[in-house]
Amino acid sequence: LECDAFCHEKFFHIYLRNANSQLLVMRPDSDDAGFENVTDHEIKKDTGMNFDMHYYKTTKPSEGMPVAFSVKVDDKNYYMCCEEESGKMIVRFKEGQVPKDISGDSNIIFFKREFNSTKEFKFEYSLEQGMFLAFEPEGIYRKLILKKLSREDEVDETTKIRI
């Protein structure tokens, strides 16, 4: 038996937008992220808007490309992870770098899957089948969350993320 392992392969600088064309912005003061109305002209480097999507090779075949996300804010690097809090899985950002090699399960890996085009995707959390990155309204923006879908082929616009 071979355990799951991930080896960092490459990364790309990207912007993540939801179905409403809002841009994902990470706020280090709250260690979370949300989708906000930001125009292309308002995007600034190292302000939590420009993410890196890290691709990993895996020893186990999977449905979707294993990826992790990181972002730089004020010369500090943060990586996206998922943690349980009060019985609910939440998306967090922690200071540090994504690892080059991961042996076993990891709370930073998501499986990138096509949503309905080559630029729109959904990202399934690697540790819980059927849990996807999504957004929900919270105050003036839409907070990045993990959302359980009842069926894998369910079309849910809140899980659609454009790169």
TrEMBL record:
List the GO biological process terms.
Answer: cellular response to lipopolysaccharide; cytokine-mediated signaling pathway; immune response; inflammatory response; positive regulation of cytokine production
Recite the UniProt keywords alphabetically: Cytokine, Cytoplasm, Secreted
**What domain of life does the native source organism fall in?**
Eukaryota
Q: Where is the signal peptide?
A: none
Q: Which InterPro entries match?
A: IL-18 (IPR015529), IL-1_fam (IPR000975), IL1/FGF (IPR008996)
Where in the cell? Cytoplasm; Secreted
Predominant localisation class: cytoplasm
Q: Which Pfam families match?
A: IL1
Any GO MF annotation of the entry: cytokine activity
Q: Identify one Gene Ontology CC term for this UniProt entry.
A: cytoplasm
Q: Where are the transmembrane segments?
A: none
Q: How does it assemble?
A: Forms a ternary complex with ligand-binding receptor subunit IL18R1 and signaling receptor subunit IL18RAP at the plasma membrane. Mature IL18 first binds to IL18R1 forming a low affinity binary complex, which then interacts with IL18RAP to form a high affinity ternary complex that signals inside the cell. Interacts with cargo receptor TMED10; the interaction mediates the translocation from the cytoplasm into the ERGIC (endoplasmic reticulum-Golgi intermediate compartment) and thereby secretion.
The family assignment reads: Belongs to the IL-1 family.
* Protein name stated in the entry: Interleukin-18
* Naturally occurring in which organism (per UniProt): Turnix velox (Little buttonquail)
Give the encoding gene's name: Il18
